[in-house]
Specification:
This is DUF4442 domain-containing protein. By secondary structure, the protein is α+β, with helices and mostly antiparallel strands. 28% of the residues lie in helices and 37% in strands.
Length: 149
């Protein structure tokens, strides 16, 4: 599936759609930009961005992007995740994801012996003006598939 098609599917996916999460850009599984709109239906008790939505807006991207970039010879799963809240989100916020060639080369080298590789990926969630709202860390489990036979 091409990245623009997946972008449309994710934008219609109920957990994103009803949380105000929108995939703005999804380029060839190497770059994604996601927006979380602040609206009456997704604010928390103190009228700021709901922390669960901040985490959700980052959820599938590292796993999908690394899996698609490495190819069918690899298994990629989310292993762990954590979020650190820095400032209250009082407006729309954005998260960006970028998969670099050097990152993929490191993962391939670590998985060359067929063993699992655990790697952390950090994502900043910021306002349009650049104010840091939260930092999300996702750990991926990556392993080269065993040969059939």
């Amino acid at each position: 599936m091409k990245a623009p098609t997946l972008r449309r599917i994710l934008n219609a996916w109920p957990p994103f759609l009803f949380a105000g999460i929108r995939v703005v850009t999804f380029s060839d599984y190497r770059y994604a930009k996601v927006k979380l709109k602040l609206a009456w239906y997704n604010r928390n008790y103190v009228r700021t961005q709901f922390g669960g939505n901040l985490f959700s807006m980052t959820d599938p991207f590292w796993m999908i992007m690394v899996l698609k970039s490495l190819g069918n010879d690899y298994i990629v799963w989310d292993q762990a995740g954590e979020i650190r809240f820095v400032a209250p989100g009082r407006e729309d916020v954005y998260a960006e994801f970028r998969v670099e060639d050097a990152m993929l080369d490191e993962i391939r080298a670590e998985c060359a012996d067929g063993q699992k590789h655990l790697r952390w990926f950090d994502t900043d969630i910021r306002t349009a003006s650049g104010e840091l709202i939260a930092t999300v860390r996702k750990q991926l489990y990556v392993r080269r598939k065993k040969p059939k036979g």
